[in-house]
Amino acid sequence: MQSSKEYINQHKDRFLNELIELLKIPSISADSAFSQDVINTAEVVEKALIEAGCDHVEICETDGYPIVYGEKIIDPKLPTVLVYGHYDVQPPDPLDLWDSPPFEPVIKKTDEHPDGAIFARGASDDKGQMYMHVKALEFMVKNDQLPCNVKFMIEGEEEVGSVNIAQYVANNKEKLKNDVILISDTGMISKEYPSITTGLRGLSYVEVELTGPNRDLHSGLYGGAVANPINILTKMIAALHDENNHITITGFYDKVEELSSEERAEMAKAPFDLDAYQSILDIDSIYGEKGYTTNERNSIRPTLDVNGIWGGYIGEGAKTVIASKAYAKISMRLVPNQDWEEITDLFTTHFESLAPKGVQVKVIPHHGGQAYVTPIDTIGYQAASKAYETTFGKVPIPQRGGGSIPIVPLFEKELDSKIILMGFGLDSNAIHSPNEHFGLWFYYKGIETIPYFYKYFAEMMAQEL
Amino acid sequence: MQSSKEYINQHKDRFLNELIELLKIPSISADSAFSQDVINTAEVVEKALIEAGCDHVEICETDGYPIVYGEKIIDPKLPTVLVYGHYDVQPPDPLDLWDSPPFEPVIKKTDEHPDGAIFARGASDDKGQMYMHVKALEFMVKNDQLPCNVKFMIEGEEEVGSVNIAQYVANNKEKLKNDVILISDTGMISKEYPSITTGLRGLSYVEVELTGPNRDLHSGLYGGAVANPINILTKMIAALHDENNHITITGFYDKVEELSSEERAEMAKAPFDLDAYQSILDIDSIYGEKGYTTNERNSIRPTLDVNGIWGGYIGEGAKTVIASKAYAKISMRLVPNQDWEEITDLFTTHFESLAPKGVQVKVIPHHGGQAYVTPIDTIGYQAASKAYETTFGKVPIPQRGGGSIPIVPLFEKELDSKIILMGFGLDSNAIHSPNEHFGLWFYYKGIETIPYFYKYFAEMMAQEL
């Protein structure tokens, strides 16, 4: 019987070329100028699922971008794997920091990727990782090695908060029924240290708007005599952290899950090279909440970051103006037990309380999601672990991740099954950044590993019965 | 003999139409996309000076935009007035806040301007006010009432820091020789309370750039673990003022001229309506340095304002990114005895000291200028005061202004004469803001008043001899 590795070797170039075509379409869900491209991408995914061997594929309309649903049911009595992924991508700006255009994929060798990596927006997040599942299905179908049923649910709004999929899931519980949900939209430590993400942070994303005088003013005539919304905004944002980089929002930490010293000691065993971390980012120091390590700060601790700020004159040269308005986009990463809607309310109340007289403040919630932690004693996790062990030669390290897939906890709740986060990216993939890329070694390794998950999952489920 | 008032009444429409044509040209010196328009404007000014009666007019090239020089020498033994003004304008953005396009002048009646005001970028600052002098010359020449010599020096770089005029002045001291310098680029309290500006604030304008990681990062993977340049920038800017809104830069106040309580009591006599001030700006409170009144805050006290800030994702929707860089444009208004170059150095040292490890900070000085105070016991001031008294029926109030004309102190030093700031604008003219305008009543009143200045100045100078 042919192995996935052999099949990949025979179809290497085609697997790469298909991904390149998918990456060429600028499916930027955040920017309405690209709406036709987003829709076109859904159609390419639909076609790919049919060609890979799905029996039934459909484009499901929502109030926003469509969800591509596909399935191959070989026997209703067998277990079912539901694959979730997304075909939309982050906006590529700042464009001038890309070494090659974000939607003209190129393959380049780097120190980290001696076999080459594909550089394009979405290469890793999530087109490349989502497409591994399509190609793994192709292998299993063509080689008669699909051991159970499979369903695909690929959405187009993950990068804008998965606004419509909740309704879709609620309306299609029977159709989406499954025994495990498989997602590749996260990373691993390294080629040498495979890992499986066992936790995701929650998210609350807000935009704030400050209004001072009703029009832009001359800074000579009014400077120093009226509240300048930009100066005030900097004061208000600065006040959101104290001198130890704790977040000052009243009630923010009340429900935060605190890990035991044993759990923290276990976490500290994961390999981490501070010098390499700093050197790859070109920074002379790390920075963060007092009392926690870097790996803790970006996984088990909640954070608050400004993602964008603007106001006043930002063009060439100088303009002596006091702006009428100033804006910021602010997001908070949350940990288990923090409810994102409650945190959004706490932020709003606190932020409004920071505004002095002379300015008006408006907080506009964007979107959010709950944190998620998956247990490692489930069949799903054990099957995934064994699959990595087979192809990497090492038991993967379970690791809490810092990112968010806001929709994940909802899947568990609505569909009553566990989520397995089989990510093949690296932190250095520059997702959401210029020069996003995905190592070819990891792309092919993902396609190789996924069929073993199906194999072990089906076997373990059969034993269970 | 015909009065200036009678002459204006005969030529009202033409005077207005000529200004409208001048305002149609977008002479934005800060934006190189408009360089041809700036040059075209110089040529329109050249033509206007010839038509108004100058004997000799020339366009003097500099390393930047040209200076238009014009003169009418009626008798070398008579005194000479040098008129300074500028033909460049501020950038018009934010464009969406204009009620009519900035370079398509319209006349509208408002509560404050029942006779109508002309709405356009540069209407008040400074095309409208500069053009009053051209039309006043026309009146004096056509009616044989020019009592002394006159020279014009109209530059095109005032809004970008008058970068080349210093060299021009230094190279042309003999040509520019004069007995008084007359400038209309400031305002007055109101129609009912004419005032003459006796002081200008100095200026230091800088841009700051913060760099954290060498690329934009995913806020989930790195949030809370590396210094976010936007968060740090807000902290650093917030730290530039203390809780009393004093500026915290070390040494900033060391040389500030402190006014005596008598002087402050004298200032406090100027009419000021706090309710009207707040209501016209739509603010519920004023804001500023503790221990000083609004009129003091915007005239005799130095200030620090952010004029623009930007970084990260500022487009539609949400992007969960930690920006590599964050920027701000910051200006400080200075008072007598503060040296702008020294203040720029103090700012730089202080701002750099505020940066924590994990970010790099760069301070780029833009431009600056010294503060200026003019005495009121000079012939120039007395002639101006008498001119206002003649046309307004009231002795004007001497008043320190909050704005800056950075080149003014240099004129006094290089040309050894006093500057008289005969401004006819109002604070509410929205200079540097959307919907800049200039009341027609003030435009015509300026043209009416200026010839009286020449008359009284020539008479007083003759008496002096």
What does this structure look like?
The structure is a homodimer of 465-residue chains. Chain A has 465 residues and is an alpha+beta fold. Chain A folds into 2 domains: 4-200 and 371-464, Aminopeptidase; 204-256 and 302-367, 2-Layer Sandwich (Alpha-Beta Plaits). Helices cover 34% and strands 21% of the residues of chain A. Chain A has 14 helices and 18 strands. Chain A has a 6-stranded mixed sheet with strand order 1-2-6-3-7-17, sandwiched between helices. In chain A, α1 packs across α3 (127-142) and α12 (379-392) crosses α14 (440-464). The longest helix of chain A is centred in the last third of the chain and has 25 residues, at 440-464. The first copy, chain A, is globular, with a radius of gyration of 23 Å. The relative contact order of chain A is 0.18. Chains A and B meet through β9, β10, α6, α7 and β11 of A and β9, β10, α6, α7 and β11 of B.
Q: What kind of sheet is the major sheet of chain A?
A: 6 strands, mixed
**Average pLDDT figure of chain A:** 95
The overall strand count of chain A is 18
Tally of DSSP helical segments of chain A? 14
When the domains of chain A are counted, the total is 2
Tell me what the CATH architecture of the largest domain in chain A is. Answer: 3-Layer(aba) Sandwich
Instruction: Please identify which CATH superfamily of the largest domain in chain A we are dealing with.
Output: Zn peptidases
Question: Which characteristics define this entry?
Answer:
Aminopeptidase, 18 strands, Alpha-Beta Plaits, globular, 6-stranded mixed beta sheet, 465 residues, 21% strand, 4-stranded antiparallel beta sheet, homodimer, 2 domains, alpha+beta
